Amino acid sequence: MIKKNMNKIILSSAIVLFPIIIGLLLWNKLPEQIATHWGANGVADGWSSKAYAVFALPCFILIAHLFCVFVCFSDPKVKDQGRKVLWLVLGLCPAVSILCSAFVYITALDIKIPIEKIVPASLGLLFAVLGNYLPKCKQSYTIGFKLPWTLSNEENWNKTHRLAGKLWVIGGLILMSLILLPKSLIVIIIPLTFTIMILVPLFYSYALYQRQTKHDGDGRIQPPSGSSMSKWNSLIITLSVIFGIMLCIGVGVLLFSGDISVQYGDSSFTIKATYWSDLEVDYNAIENIEFRQTNDAGQRTNGFGSSRLLMGTFRNDEFGTYTRYSYTKCPSAVVMTVSGKTLVLSGADDDSTQAIYHELLSRIKQ
Q1: Is pLDDT of 221 > 60?
Q2: pLDDT per residue over 53-106, tens digit each?
Q3: Kind and range of the H or E element at 181?
């Protein structure tokens, strides 16, 4: 199937990368720092360099696109799928790439749009389209609700996807209607809608399986026929489990690990940080230093943030744009003015932060 559809794969991949051409045409008009992530309130809370926004985002989506195409088109059951479903697989990532890059470029050019409403509405349109195609999906190891009882029973698969299709269309319409509602309701409705769209078909499918096994008098789930299909199913499950475990481990490591340390030299000190670049500061460049019991971090514009660490470039009302290396659970901080710019540094707790402050203060006075 991959060789047979190679021209379509190349065309769809080119569309994924098309925003790069637009970014190059707009290059001189784009700022050096571009918003690439927004909170539920529509306020930008994540920033990236111009090169990253123009080149990296479409390339990441291209990798996801090629992975999805490879997995779906290598499925032994893909030949049973209709042409519309396959076109949907090929067209999903190109649509996401164009949509995401459009939001990034529009906001970078300072064109005011209610992004907190447009994004849910765009997602709603996407889910409404997907919901329309779900009932058309045939049994597959890569497309649809891939559960043991849906894969082993065609009637269960069809009924589950008919219900899911209706729910996804309704959910999509609800998300599109959020453009008319206040922000406070959007934050509540979006996760509730997603939860219903995912969990209701799952519970319905399992309930249908339980009812079917009562009639059949056998509670065992029979695997799909065909040794190659069974091997493919086992491979997909194994890869999914491995990927899920690696993803959980990776997220856990990023969220709950990492440290910030300070190394003192004769003429300068160096801030050593996990997951972010180190920073060397000359003692002579420190114009002012103070210890604060509390400090408002503001918004991170570029850098790394987790449940343990906050590092990178930040912006708040007091300092404007400044550099920060701190622990999230430590309220105190050492605030320095270095060559006219603000640097905020903290230890893991108040005691270690005070120790940093007194050590720096003693070396500055030497």
Answers
A1: no
A2: 899 999 999 999 998 888 888 777 777 777 788 888 889 899 999 998 998 999
A3: none
- Which CATH number belongs to the domain containing residue 333 in this structure? 2.30.29
Average pLDDT, rounded, for the chain = 83
Angle at alpha carbon of residue 91, lines to 87 and 97, rounded to 5°: 175
Q: Rounded distance, CA 174 to CA 211, Å?
A: 31
DSSP code for 133? H
Of the residues 113, 143, 177, which one is the last residue of a structural domain? 113
In angstroms, the Cα distances linking 64 to 16, 19, 194, 250 are: 10, 16, 22, 18
**Long-range CB contacts (within 8 A, 24+) of 135-139:** 135/161, 135/162, 135/165, 136/82, 136/84, 136/85, 137/81, 137/85, 137/161, 138/77, 138/80, 138/81, 138/82, 138/85, 139/77, 139/80, 139/224
Alpha helices in the chain (DSSP H): 6-25, 50-51, 57-73, 83-108, 115-133, 148-152, 154-177, 183-216, 227-256, 350-365
| C-beta separation of 74 from 25 below 8 A | no
- The C-alpha atoms of residue 13 and residue 231 are separated, in whole angstroms, by 29
Q: What is the pLDDT of residues 238-260, one digit of tens each?
A: 555 566 566 566 666 776 788 99
- When mean pLDDT is compared across 205-209, 329-333, 343-347, the lowest value belongs to 205-209
pLDDT value for 26: 94
Q: Is the pTM of this model over 0.90?
A: no
Quote the domain boundaries for residue 338: 260-365
- Residue that is last in its domain, among 113, 145, 175: 113
